[in-house]
Queue: 2 jobs
Job 1
Amino acid sequence: MTSPISGIRQLEDLGDVSGKRVLVRCDLDVPIANGMIVDDFRIRACVPTLQWLVAHGALVTVCGHIGRPGGKVVPELSMAPVRERLEALVPGIEVRENLRFDPREEANDPAFVAELIDGFDYYVNEVFGVSHRKHASIVGPPQFLPSAAGRNVFREVEVIGSILDQPTLPFIAVVGGAKVSDKIGVLRALAQRADLVLIGGAMALTFLASGHELGDSMVETSHLAEARELLNAFPNLVLPEDLLVEDANGKVETRGLDLAPGERAFDIGPRTAITYSDHIAQSATVFWNGPMGRFEDERFASGTLGIAAAMAKSTTNSARTIVGGGDSAAAVAHFGLTNEMFHVSTGGGASLKLIEQGDLPGLEALRSANG
Ligand code: ADP
Ligand code: MG
């Protein structure tokens, strides 16, 4: 399989942008409360691309969305605070109003695309997190304008693409999170490529439920057969050997794999955390999606912390450690380990879709702009 990065241009490949009008679709979907930006990490993330364009003489217009206004004007989701912040960081750029105030953005309406690109010479996609959606501002402009990926998009696709296309071995995948049903496609894609897939989180319980009594734990009974089928198809799936359990009186204990009624597993057990960490220590590539337990509750954070710490250590041994998924990235940030990873993806859903499908509509559009 070729990497999804092949055929995608970078900013340098656009040619001379001096005096040219460039439309940049950015990730501006920041949390806003009472007209104030709560966290500006996404705004800061698009600055290098914008600075490069401005420094090379381009006339830059930025567009993006905030929240889910549902195709109508919602004043609380106005771009005004983001515009103010972005214009302070990169003077001289123009920032458009929330694209999703118009229903034609999400409907990918050709007339909206025509309005968007009117007067522009180039298009840049700097919104990896939405590139799995066929929205007008993602898939439209590359049909008409020479186009490139922004710095973040290029890095995301290059790094995640390296998992799909000849990862350095041994390659260990770690998959957890709430539901098997969310992750079937990702599990299959990873199981086909990784030496081992270490399974944790509530998802592990649905796998374990075939041979064990799991008390009142969260098991997706409608997916038991599918979990069994995956276990048969992929002998490289690894399940927990112990669990961290809350009993009916709220007491937390380490247990084996058979629980009594009223008991619920909320994390992998300490032996499992050690086994998984040992595998991670041996690896050259690690991809992790999905917390090992209910890490938001301190009593059940140790499994997730164990994986994050093992990955951080592997990074220093020059393993390529990659984290994808919204809650997984939040967990790593919560433990203060974001900078200890080779790469933490900004696009939760998009990174999983890219692994599952090997490509994204926004990337296909960029590639065919160059065809
Ligand atoms: P991501 O966003 O990284 O893809 P998910 O959305 O799949 O991850 O899952 C994250 C959620 O799963 C977290 O909120 C966590 O509390 C929950 N979770 C993980 N393990 C368990 C468990 N054993 N019981 C209940 N919730 C769990
Ligand atoms: Mg999630």
Note: The CA atoms of residues 36 and 81 lie 7 Å apart.
Job 2
Amino acid sequence: MITYASAPGKVIWFGEHFVVLGYPAIASSINLRAHVSIRDNSRGIIIESRNLGLRYVYGESPPREMRQFKHIIDYCVEEGIIDRLRRFHAVIDSNIPVASGLGSSAATSVAFTTAFLAHHGIDYDKELISRIAYEAEKLVHGKPSGIDNTISTYGGFIVYRSGSVKRIRIKWPNDYILFVVDTGIRRNTGKAVSMVLERYRRNEDIMKHVYRASEKIVNKAIKCLRSQDMECIAELMNINHGLLVSIGVSLQKIELIIHRALENGALAAKITGAGLGGSVIVLLKRELMKRIMKALRPIASHIYVVKPVNSGIIVKRE
Ligand code: PMV
């Protein structure tokens, strides 16, 4: 019996960083996914990552990039979620770029947890999966808000605030597309989050207004998303980027990409995720795709054409 599980990457549309202090954020899953297959293996517990080219034998010390899987196994044993550890061979394969702000670590944790629990005969339970993946996220970066594991588990568009999830049902208009432009600068989410929190602490009476402005953006964006008012969404994305600049997570390269996209007709462009590298999202009309792609190609490390999708975890057994 083989279990296959997959979970999507995500983009944060509004509210990254502000969400860490309990303000709301909006994220959606995208059509890039992490896949895990798991099957019995008499020789022990082996986890292989195809895209990282790494292999980890449980019981040995894991490579840094694979610590999250050991943590998930240990957590499930320690918390009594599984009563007896079964041997298995898991293969992880993902088309979500790593360290780019697209939630690749959360998606692999969610997909691995789903496959791991199914392999141990535990009933499919999204709340449990997301909670376990959150434990792994804590290991990857110190103070995660929980948005990445939540969106990867549930999928669709969500408003996330301190652990609570509200779905926004929207039908994505076909004539609008989203570029995820990878700056090629690998960032560290944990460092970016602590830097922002320090700035907040030093200037709380100023920064609280920035955080409140972000909340207002999210509240308005919910309405604009529901009514498919793309002009409004675009404008709010641009305002949100301004707030991200004020908390210190932009870079020259990010600004270059954003300005070039806007000069070439994009409706909006902003950091998605932690910033200080990672990715920029660009909202554009489909008819301008070629022109904007051509303008960005020389300065981007990679451009992904993505679309929001409704699915979160997908699991099947054969
Ligand atoms: O890891 P990233 O780049 O997707 O960023 C996560 C979003 C933050 O709000 C910066 C951190 C968090 O835990 O919500």
Note: The mean pLDDT is 95.
